[in-house]
Amino acid sequence: MHGFNSVNWTNVLLVIVLTSFATMFAMANLTLIQVHFLGVSSATIPFYVPVFIAFMLGFFGGVLALLFSRRKHKQEIIWLRQENERLQREVDNLRNIPLQDDV
Length: 103
Known about the structure:
Residues 70-97 form a coiled coil. It comes from Mariprofundus aestuarium. Residues 29-91 form the Lipopolysaccharide assembly protein A domain. By secondary structure, this protein is mostly helical. The chain has a domain at 1-30. Helix content is 74%, strand content 8%. Strands 1-4 form a two-stranded antiparallel ribbon. The chain has a two-stranded antiparallel ribbon with strand order 2-3. The radius of gyration is 28 Å and the shape is elongated.
């Protein structure tokens, strides 16, 4: 239970540090800008907004890629466990075959 508690405090500390950096970044970048993309212009927004949006899109793209990779690895683990069981049965069967002397 001790390990679980220390992980929670580490996560809380990490969230506090990241939130502090994000807040400091936002406060330092309040300059108003207009974003133009594919012929569409945004309203006037603070500079940190498109930066955070780009960061979040990258983060969620990474999470999505991780989920697909994890799914692939889980399927491979299932296949390897089945193969291991099959090979273990084969080894057990070979151990049970009586030895024959051709003398």
